[in-house]
């Protein structure tokens, strides 16, 4: 896979549709989402988020996904978050040069 495809794969399985089962196997929804993005087919991401949160809520051992995204949306719309316990993003939840290097990608002649 190209670097773009590998990065998209990582974003989908780690951020957009996390399953907690590692990266080797993709769910049907993860594959569908990748196909939509590769094919430039529009999809309703808020609906996808909602369905993912409902599925996570119905499972015994899961956490609410999209915490960072939801926090940004709430803050943007000035929704008060008093009483909520803030947690810092983990290093592995950010994407930068260091992340790319940790994934084993090297920049050569200005290209990843």
What secondary-structure arrangement, pairings included, does this model have?
Elements: H1 3-16, H2 28-38, H3 45-58, H4 67-76, H5 97-102
Keywords: Membrane, Transmembrane, Transmembrane helix
Transmembrane segments: 32-50
**What is the H/E order?**
HHHHH
Give the C-alpha Rg. 16 Å
| Helix-and-strand structural type | mainly alpha
Question: What is the overall pLDDT average?
Answer: 83
What percent of the residues sit in helical stretches (DSSP H or I)? 40-55%
Percent of residues in beta strands?
under 5%
Taking the alpha carbons of the first and last residues, their distance comes to 13 Å
Domain count: 1
Number of strands: 0
Q: What ranges have pLDDT less than 50 throughout 5 or more consecutive residues? A: none
**What is the number of helical segments per DSSP (H or I, 4+ residues)?**
5
Could you describe the 3D structure shown?
With 112 residues, the chain is mostly helical. It has one domain. Keywords: Membrane, Transmembrane, Transmembrane helix.
Defining traits:
112 residues; mainly alpha
Question: What's this, in brief?
Answer:
Helix content is 49%, strand content 0%. With 112 residues, it is an all-alpha fold. The chain crosses the membrane at residues 32-50.
């Amino acid at each position: 896979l190209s670097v773009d495809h590998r990065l998209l794969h990582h974003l989908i399985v780690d951020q957009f549709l996390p399953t907690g089962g590692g990266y080797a196997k993709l769910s049907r929804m993860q594959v569908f989402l990748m196909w939509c993005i590769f094919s430039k087919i529009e999809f309703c991401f808020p609906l996808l988020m909602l369905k993912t949160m409902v599925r996570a809520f119905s499972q015994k051992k899961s956490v609410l996904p999209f915490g960072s995204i939801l926090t940004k949306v709430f803050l943007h719309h000035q929704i008060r978050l008093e009483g909520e316990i803030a947690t810092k993003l983990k290093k592995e939840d950010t994407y930068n040069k260091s992340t790319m290097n940790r994934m084993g990608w090297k920049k050569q002649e200005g290209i990843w």
